[in-house]
Amino acid sequence: MRPTSPTEDLLRLHAPQVLGALVRRYGRFDAAEDAVQEALLAAAGQWPSAGVPDNPRGWLIKVASRRLTDMLRAEEARRAREERVAALSVRDTAVADRAPREDDTLSLLFLCCHPRLTPSAQIALTLRAVGGLTTAEIARAHLVPEATMAQRVSRAKQKVRGVGFGRPDNWEERLPAVLHTLYLIFNEGHTATSGPALQRRDLAGEAIRLTRAVHRLLPDDCEIAGLLALMLLTDARRDARTGPDGDLVPLDEQDRARWDGAAIEEGVALVTRALARRRAGPYQIRAAIAAVHDEAPSPEATDWREILGLYDVLVGLVPGPVERLNRAVAVAMVHGPEAGLTELDALTDELGHRLDAVRGHLLERAGAYEEARAAYESAAGKTLSLPEQRYLQGRAARLRP
To answer: How much is the pTM?
Structure first.
């Protein structure tokens, strides 16, 4: 993972607040976002040598406001438009000096997760506008050409053009979409769906940072706390998930001394407080499952009965294929691999390589080595992740006569 400089960290921190201030004032998301990107580039070029201004956020807002005003002037030649832009220019200083509202980040998230957008567009726009990532960085994270990602972001901005800025009236209904987008970003960072690396740590770290920001704004929401806890408890294992050559290390073979104890402690505290309020939701249950894994001193000490009970609750709330697949593993750990295989029979191929991978694992535990080898090879042929391919091919090779 490429380390970030203090200037980059500072710019990424202020980017959503600066963008929120401009969109709230001018009401032009697409133009404001371009202006903020230019201001960030200007800061990245000037601050390392000239020094960080006393009020970096105000500096960025002032520069971005000027750039936005220039864009609006160039865009519209009619006199009425010019007069309006001139009027806005007079108030540039007021915009720069006024502190952004504390919920600008949340308002941007709601805008980026607008129902008009597809999930992939929501993720791209969130990473660009709220995360402060460049189009090139987002493209690298998704392993697509920069031009492709630029088109995706541009189309997303056009679709939300004219949408009012601020927390929508039905914001509580839209909050699940925001959390789901953050969850998807984290999952792609934690286990990349394709490419040479198992993890994309920058992406997972960005999801955690943004979820922390939402949690600060809505500290009483139990599901936000649950999502943050889930991310922390899952990300705590990242250093132990790969070997020296980047090869995948499964959970039961990881060196638990390499797990991040501070992240585990914070995650456990978050989910414990959230569950104590007796409004358990899916993210809280997932976090509780992760906590049981993380608090076990060894694989043998893992309380699989508790995990199975939690999965029973989770599947009752979210009866999705991934949740049912994970529950089948818990069933196998409690009642034996044959019972887990019976659970798998009810699942469909929409799970891709993961279904075959779990089937191979349970067949191997059941002593059906030839069938297990075939399942591992099938799974290896379906995944686009090179570390997963190598791991599954290795499991299959061990079972060849």
So the answer is: 0.78
